[in-house]
Model the fold of this input.
Amino acid sequence: MTNSIDKNITGNATPAKLQTKLSTTEKVALSLKKRHQKERRFRNTGFSAVLFGFMLVVILIGDITTKALPAFHQHWVKLDVNYQSDWLSVDANLSGYELTQQLKTANFRKVLRNSLYPMFVNEQTPKLSRKDKRSAFKLFSSNAEFTIRDALLAAPEDLNETVSIWVRLDDDVDSYLKEGFAFGTAGLRIDEQQAQWVAKLEQEQRIESRFNTSFFTASDSREPELAGIKGALMGTLLTMFVTLLLSFPLGVAGALYLEEFAPKNRLTDIIEININNLAAVPSIVFGLLGLAVIINLFGLPRSAPLVGGIVLTLMTLPTIIIASRAAIKAVPPSIREAALGLGASKMQVTLSHVLPQAMPGIITGGIIGIAQALGETAPLLMIGMVAFIVDVPTSIADSATVLPVQIFLWADSPERAFLAKTSAAILVLLTLLLVINTTATVLRSKFEKK
Amino acid sequence: MNSPLLFTLLVCLTLFSYWYGINRSLKVAGGTEHKKVLSCLPKQFGLLTAMVCGLPALITLLIFNSAEQLVIEQLLTATLPANIQALSNIDLGLYLNNIRFLALSESNQALLNNLSSSTDIALNIQLNAAIAIQKLEQQAKWLKTALVLVVSLVSVIILVRKFSITYEARQKSETIIHALLVASSAIAILTTLGIVISVLFESIHFFKSVPATEFMFGTQWSPQTAMRADQIGGSGSFGAVPLFAGTLLITFIAMLLAVPVGLMIAIYLSQYANSKFRNIAKPMLEVLAGIPTVVYGFFAALTVAPVIRSTGEYFGLSVASESALAAGLVMGTMIIPFVSSLSEDAISAVPKALKEASFGMGATKSETVIKVLLPAALPGIVGAILLAISRAIGETMIVVMAAGMAANLTANPLDSVTTVTVQIVTLLTGDQEFDSPKTLAAFALGLMLFITTLGLNILALKVVQKYREQYD
Done:
């Protein structure tokens, strides 16, 4: 142990009255226990901070995953549908094309009603009251009449027969079955009578839980049991397509100029400072720019992936430029000098030697920029991608919404079933991001090995 | 031909002219075997031809597309009766929209049929105009196709005529590429200019109807403006102080969580953890940085806020369901990895000699960290915190989903407050006409946001730069 220890470090640890009698070595030895205790405490604080960070990650992901799980399956109910032609008001003598035409506009709601009421009558209540009828009808998804219509259209020979057909239950019943709530839970609209009926249906083994495919194949809907993410996924795809197409070439070209050609003068300095500052401008400000300039000044359509892509391009451009510049800087000067020595022009050196060498790093930077754009919501709210859109967008000028915005919209919905839908959409988004980021990491490690 | 199709055709033409340029240059040289007499490689001739074919035509297409609507509108307005031409800009716009809708929803034949059967004069004018607009749009399409094709073909022909053995195709194409590179890097400046001009312009509009002093120092925020003159409670007041206070409160709570935790994580990972633990811990914590903010917003609104509310009720406190605490804590969570990675950089940048000297004097690790490393890294850490604050102020989705809408001037973290970004979103996501003070107020708020974050970033940069000068 050294006795020339700094007073500042040990000073307070020694009791004052002993100070005169003890030598420095002894003072230090006395204070050691306390100092080591402090050291351990500090170390443990640091470790618990890291653990706290871990805990936050686990809680966040775990919470969303558990909330999302119910959305991946859905309850269906078996109905004995009686396709009576007079309920449908269809001429039973027709066949082929004419029958199909009539069936397309036939009254399937009546068939549905008349088929489902018998399930709920018994000796005590041989006939349902008006109110009971309404609440019985509400157990089924509003889409049930289309399900039975499509079933009959697929098999027109079932006309005037009774067939078992599976239809979706209403979202409230679905949530009730999944989560087993007590009555009166907020957002759960189901009464005691309905609960008894559902129990009866379950006893008769008419209810079945299936994987929810429509979550991936359907578009947005006001009815939670029908709503899916296909429209939002397509919107995301189109928006990302525009973003990638614009931001990647522009970013790389900008970086090449700044790194390889730009003279060192005031203008380049300004551009540099500008890019660094733009990277830190809040994303919502880019939304304001999009609204004021791209929509109001240039007159591009609102809510379109084209505008969304342009706004996200402006937002991610600084990230891509900064990453690309780092990658270009990392190309050894010997490569440039060798190419120049062989008589290549500056442009040839840049495009055929520096750029290919820097490409893996540039691609990694580009992917990180895209990942950032993929999760962005705020600027897209500003340019109107927040509308309720049922159609799946097919071109970059259609009205569309994107996955993060869909999450935002669903999170606002009062129906209980949208809670699970929202979480499931978040899981899909996080999976997409995970795939993208893993690609970037793999590319980077491959690049570093070289 | 519509624009996407035309664009595809243009791409094909460009590819074709690459091949054409090569062939022409070989012909000039007198066959493949003589290609060495050319001053440049044939493919460089091809590249130049392709660029000359594509670029001017593309620019023509873009200009045409952006001017098309405006010109059609002008031409159409000129044919309308005088009383409609005399309408104000807004009403005229609505009228034109009606016509456009009519033209879109019905085919030419249906319009003509309606025209012959209808006796309503006003409707007939609209129907006529709808037919006119369909005609104009058809003409515009043809004109566009013709113009783009002519521009690309003529420029290729002019270029190819100049080809000779000594023609410097490479130098010419390099000049064009150089210009393209310059233009790309100028986009960053254009973006900033665009932001500043658009936000500033609309803000000036806003400050014409609401005095800047009221906006900056007023304490009443209720941006509803009257639809009718006699409406009650629709006077609209635009005092933004409660918004600034709410933003600061939530940012403060976020920092209260993020700075200590982030700093301790940075210290532990850079000074104590072995490399194995670091390699697991760092990506794990970076997950927090990669999660989209809308997910945090959902988490704050549907998980954290109810927990805080019920905990508060357990202790007999009244907690708003959209408390500042929930939004702040979740925002803090989001910022932890930001603070920790920037501070770790700052701590690792402290010269090793300082650390070793401290160890040599017998100091423990924690004493070294607290008394040597942290003071030396302080400027870097302060820079990191400033950047984190700027991030928290500009963060939108968490507060939109988890913070309130009502502007309360309070310092109580259990109350509901609103922030600048929440108000921007609320003001602009409704169906508002663009010139009302309500929408313009959003731009004024955006201006404040831009200035504040810009100032913080510049400050952070200055602090960090000063620190660098100290040791390098």
Chain A touches chain B through 96 residues (CB under 8 Å).
